[in-house]
TrEMBL record:
Domain Fumarylacetoacetase-like C-terminal: 27-227
Protein name (record): Fumarylpyruvate hydrolase
Molecular function per GO: acetylpyruvate hydrolase activity; metal ion binding
UniProt entry keywords in alphabetical sequence: Hydrolase, Metal-binding, Pyruvate
A Pfam match: FAA_hydrolase
Organism of origin: Cognatishimia maritima
Origin: domain of life: Bacteria
InterPro entries reported for this sequence: Fumarylacetoacetase-like_C, Fumarylacetoacetase_C_sf
Length: 227
């Protein structure tokens, strides 16, 4: 047994659709992966290679509530497809990438947009805007053996019964196999890694009392109340 000098932190997990736990190792997020969202954020999607930022594994929380974070007055919703890996490696060929996938879930990338804007203006990292507690509510993780590998299908976010974000997975600039292959050129991917694959246009602020429902065709929905 290891002789830890402090109690070992619990392993962050995502709950699967059959009630089991998927242990999370790392969380990679691709930025501006839907053309319309890139445009609404003031960027040209035709001239930009993929880029990534990270959240912390324990930022992933089972859907239910999202506590409005401190130090921000402008927190935005971003609905995304989450990809969970069962294996990895370096320089994974694109045609072999989907063999690394365990399953998929509906997820939210909650963002302190005001703090992100400050960081961008000063050329600083985004962690304070992206990697805070409860910043990635996630729905039930469903195995690819049940749902396949979603490549087309509606992705949308409903806030208080009104559609805010609406798109299709087919509109992703970088598809799931390309994302995995590209990431593996820079990181050694492994079982337990998860990837958030980007959000469609329509991102916007939330306030306490809002009810968010994320939907992706073929997957279980995610419901979150802002408190």
């Amino acid at each position: 047994m290891p002789d830890f000098v402090i109690p070992a932190p619990a392993t962050p997990v995502i709950q699967t659709s059959d009630g089991r736990d998927f242990p999370v190792r790392r969380v990679y997020c691709i930025g501006r992966n839907f053309a319309a969202h890139a445009v609404e954020m003031g960027h040209d999607p035709d001239r930009e290679p993929p880029f990534f930022f990270q959240k912390n594994p324990n930022n992933l929380t089972t859907g239910g509530v999202f506590p409005y974070p401190s130090q921000s007055a402008d927190v935005h919703h971003e609905v995304e497809l989450l990809v969970a890996l069962k294996s990895g490696g370096r320089d994974i060929p694109e045609e072999q990438a989907l063999a690394c996938v365990w399953g998929y879930a509906t997820c939210l990338d909650m963002t302190r947009r005001d703090l992100q804007a400050q960081a961008k203006s000063q050329g600083r990292p985004w962690e304070v805007a992206k990697a805070f507690e409860h910043s990635a509510p996630v729905g039930p993780l469903q195995p690819a053996s049940d749902v396949g590998h979603p490549q087309i299908g509606a992705i949308r976010l409903i806030v208080n019964d009104l559609a805010r974000q609406s798109g299709d997975l087919s509109q992703m600039i970088w598809k799931t196999p390309q994302i995995i292959a590209y990431l593996s050129q820079f990181f050694e991917l492994a079982a337990g890694d998860v990837i958030l694959t980007g959000t469609p246009s329509g991102v916007g602020p939330v306030v306490r009392g809002d009810r968010l429902i994320g939907e992706i065709g073929g997957l279980m929905p995610l419901q979150v109340d802002v408190v």
